[in-house]
Structure formats: C-alpha cells, structure tokens
Amino acid sequence: MKIHLAESLHQPGKTLSTKRLASRLPFGITRLATALPALTMLLIVIGLNAYLQPDFFSADSLTSNLQNAAPVILICMAQAVVVLSGELDLSIGAGISVVNCVLASAPALAGWGAVATCCAALGVALVAGVVNGLLVGYFKQSALIATFATGAIWFGGALLLMPQPGGTVPEVLGEWFAMRVGPLPLAAVPLLIAAGIWAMLQRHRFGRRLIATGSSADAVSKSGVDTRRVKLLAYVLAWLFVFGAALCISAETSSGDARLGLPYTLNSVAAVVIGGISLAGGRGSMIGAICGALVLVLIGNVVYFAGIPSNYQELFKGAVIVVALGFTFVGARNSA
C-alpha cells in the first residue's frame, strides 16, 4: 500500500511526529524484505566458495576473508548511509586515498606518532564529510556533481602528499590488523563499532529522520524537520565509516598510494544496489548493504579459485555483478 506523505502531513487536524512518519514509510515495513535477494545471492556465493575451497570454513580462511572484507563492508556502509538519505557520494574512493596518504606520509613529514597520525587522518575524513554535507544539504547542490568535484579535490590532495606510491604507515597499525583474539581478528573491531553506531542510531530520532528524508525530503521538511542538517550528519557519519575503511586498508598495505581507493567508489554503489537499497533513497537496510559487500568480496574469490585466466577475470566478475543486480531488481519488484 502506497502512502502519500505530503497528503498525510496536511490532513486537517492531524500532525505526524517524525517517529510516526517513519513507522508509516515503506522502509519500516520492508527493510528486511529488501535484503532477501542479497542474502540469497550471498548464500549462493558462499556455496561456490565452499565447493572451490575445501578449507573455506577453517579458522585461517575465515580470518583472511574477514580481513579482506572489513574495509569493503565499511565503505559500503558509508555509501548506504548517504543513499538512504536520498543522496550519493562519488568521492568515497578518493577519500580512501587521501586518508591513506595522510597515514603513510604524516610520520615522515611531521614526525608524528601513531596516535597523532590517526587523529590527523580522522580529522581529514570528517572535514571531507562536512564539506560534502554542506554542499549537498545546505547549498542544495546536486550530490552527483558536488561529490564528483570534491572527489577530484581529495584525489589531488592525495597526489600532492604522495606523487608516487610509498611511505610507511605506523607499524602498530599493521600489527593490530594481523592480531587475533581467539578466532576473531582485530580487523573486525571497526566493523563492530560501525554496526553498533548504526544500531544505536536506528533507535534514535536521527535514524528515523534520515530514512524519512530519503523517502520524501519535502514532506519531512514541511513537518518541521531540518533536512539540511540530516543530510549533513549523514555525510559526516558516512565519512566516519570511510576513515575506518581507510585505516583497515592502510594497515593491510603498510604504505600509501594516491590511487589506492579509486576502485572502491563504484564497488560501494554496486554493493548498495545488490543489497536492495533504492538509489532514490528511503528504502532498504544496512543488512542488505553488508550482504552486497560480502557478495562482491566472495565473487573475487570464486573468480580466482575457479582458475579463470587473468585476462578474463574482470570481465567475468563484471558479468556476475550484472547478474546479481538483475536478481536483486527482480526481487525488489516482487517485494513491491
């Protein structure tokens, strides 16, 4: 059943609180259903991995896969937050690069230790989120154009810091990334923190306002909610996740590269769509985005362990992603 928000908000003698408004949105009813196609695809890909890798479920294999998946999941969570608010961020990949270059160059350029370097990188990420949020939320610029432009700026900053790949990330980050507590690698800590933040926000009015804004910004604005502030906070939160992803990638590579993060932008959008999140905003779930990210990671494993020649790997991977997108689209139509 379709709900016309603008009409509901203007019914004589009736007012809708943000909480009640969000509860009437399609997201409140179907957010788990939208993730079902992605979950099904994930189970299929896990089955293929288990068939191709006899030790897929061993502790070492699971640890390795989780370490590879952690930054991808965080990046996709970042994009999901923005998309759920009804916008898009094409600067995420360049943001990964500039944060990585800060982590790899600050110790040599400024003589900073690990804590100061990480704080500087976090500051860069949050400033980038604020800039994107101001451009899109307060200055009403097209998210597509604004974040494409800021992405060029972040990439230029990364090149200024590190024209050639190199530098050294603080050793403690690499040591942390490789450590395990029982079967759980410490690389999962940023994931758990991000999931905890999102779960907490889902119970807070900001989470409800974010989803409502993505569904119908005009109707929500007329109900008294400052949608500009909601979008600004959505970008800031997304870039907090971007920082976590860049931290994981930098700890794994132990060096800097201005082009390191560029492929992640389109991957994040693909994972969000595979996860059943509508690019129009306001419909989908973070569970779907996480499933979509895992599908992308495990598809790479299938391509590698199937022994597909390197010349055809990207072609095959792209074809599988297209099939996954089609599968998700059919599932979304059936759900609707």
UniProtKB/TrEMBL annotation:
<feature type="transmembrane region" description="Helical">
    <location>
        <begin position="143"/>
        <end position="162"/>
    </location>
</feature>
<keyword id="KW-1133">Transmembrane helix</keyword>
<keyword id="KW-0472">Membrane</keyword>
<feature type="transmembrane region" description="Helical">
    <location>
        <begin position="232"/>
        <end position="252"/>
    </location>
</feature>
<dbReference type="GO" id="GO:0022857">
    <property type="term" value="F:transmembrane transporter activity"/>
</dbReference>
<dbReference type="InterPro" id="IPR001851">
    <property type="entry name" value="ABC_transp_permease"/>
</dbReference>
<dbReference type="GO" id="GO:0005886">
    <property type="term" value="C:plasma membrane"/>
</dbReference>
<keyword id="KW-1003">Cell membrane</keyword>
<feature type="transmembrane region" description="Helical">
    <location>
        <begin position="182"/>
        <end position="201"/>
    </location>
</feature>
<feature type="transmembrane region" description="Helical">
    <location>
        <begin position="114"/>
        <end position="136"/>
    </location>
</feature>
<dbReference type="Pfam" id="PF02653">
    <property type="entry name" value="BPD_transp_2"/>
</dbReference>
<feature type="transmembrane region" description="Helical">
    <location>
        <begin position="64"/>
        <end position="83"/>
    </location>
</feature>
<keyword id="KW-0813">Transport</keyword>
<feature type="transmembrane region" description="Helical">
    <location>
        <begin position="289"/>
        <end position="309"/>
    </location>
</feature>
<feature type="transmembrane region" description="Helical">
    <location>
        <begin position="29"/>
        <end position="52"/>
    </location>
</feature>
<feature type="transmembrane region" description="Helical">
    <location>
        <begin position="315"/>
        <end position="332"/>
    </location>
</feature>
<keyword id="KW-0997">Cell inner membrane</keyword>
<feature type="transmembrane region" description="Helical">
    <location>
        <begin position="90"/>
        <end position="108"/>
    </location>
</feature>
<protein>
    <submittedName>
        <fullName>Ribose ABC transport system, permease protein RbsC</fullName>
    </submittedName>
</protein>
<keyword id="KW-0812">Transmembrane</keyword>
